[in-house]
Amino acid sequence: MTSHRLPDAVLRPLSDAAAFDSTVQRLSAVIRLGVFVHGEQLPPERELAVRLGVSRVNLREAIAALRESGMVQTRRGRGGGTTITYDGNPVRPLTPAEPDGHRALIVDALNFRRVVEPGAAYLAAGTELAGDQRDWLAGFEDQVRAAGNGSAHRIADSRLHLAIAALSGSPMLIEAVVRVQSSLDDVLGRLPLLPEHVEQSHQAHRAVVAAILDGDPPAARTEMERQCDATSELVRALLA
Predict the structure, then answer these.
(1) First vs last Cα of the chain: how many Å apart?
(2) Is 25 inside a domain boundary?
(3) Containing domain of residue 71, as a range?
(4) Which residues contact 77 (CB under 8 A, 6 or more apart)?
(5) How many domains does the chain have?
(6) Which residues sit opposite 83 in a β-bridge?
(7) What residues contact residue 5 under an 8 Å CB cut-off, 6+ apart?
(8) Are residues 115 and 194 in the same domain?
(9) Where are the alpha helices (DSSP H) in 17-168?
């Protein structure tokens, strides 16, 4: 198993494939969440259009919108392609000054995450994982620990959570985790990365991954619930 497992899991036909906005949103999400990282190329247009279930015209328009936003750049001709230029959002503190409407969306997303991500961990732990799958998951945990602070940590963190969802084997759960991680991306990227918070995050990841590798679904679900609760508590405190 390779890093391309995340694109294989995440890039699925859109439910409203004719909608330009949906194509932009999905591509933007997979880039922001680290499915494709800075300097990496998107799959060829023909392949990507098939994966998303959209026309190549629709896809090209969506990629053009991403270029305008500075997330990708495209080189035409032989050896060309679309390369990721996104390297994380500027970090700005999360404060009580968030608009009420945005605060409500954040709380809803936190509640949604509390339901879907523990379920994904539960299913992943109940799956008989091959050796390369076990190494693949452990590798994502290692990447989070090596990421340091700032946007690199957020991207590595989201990749780990998407990997757990991918191992659940449930397309609907994968879709749900992509959705909630995308909804919370800006918020989670603005949490203070104090040393104690980083270490707590590492310990939580270690516990979740260990439970999955041990094949213990209840423990995996419980550990992911604890991580979701700790993050939610921190976010709510910063918004209070």
Answers:
(1) 43
(2) yes
(3) 5-84
(4) none
(5) 2
(6) 41, 73
(7) 136, 163, 166
(8) yes
(9) 20-32, 45-52, 56-68, 100-125, 131-146, 151-168
Instruction: Please enumerate in sequence order all residues whose Cβ is within 8 A of that of 171, keeping only pairs 6 or more positions apart, or say none.
Output: 12
**48 and 147 co-located in one domain:** no
Helix (H, G, I), strand (E, B) or coil at 90: coil
| Pair of tokens at residue 190 | 């603005």
114 and 67 in a common domain: no
Closest CA relative to residue 82, chosen from 107, 47, 117: 47
**pLDDT tens digit at each of 240 positions of the chain:** 444 578 888 888 887 656 788 899 899 999 999 999 899 999 999 999 999 999 999 999 999 999 998 999 998 877 778 999 988 766 566 667 677 778 888 999 999 999 999 999 999 999 999 999 999 999 999 999 998 777 788 889 999 999 999 999 999 999 999 999 998 888 887 777 778 888 888 999 999 999 999 999 999 999 999 999 999 998 888 888
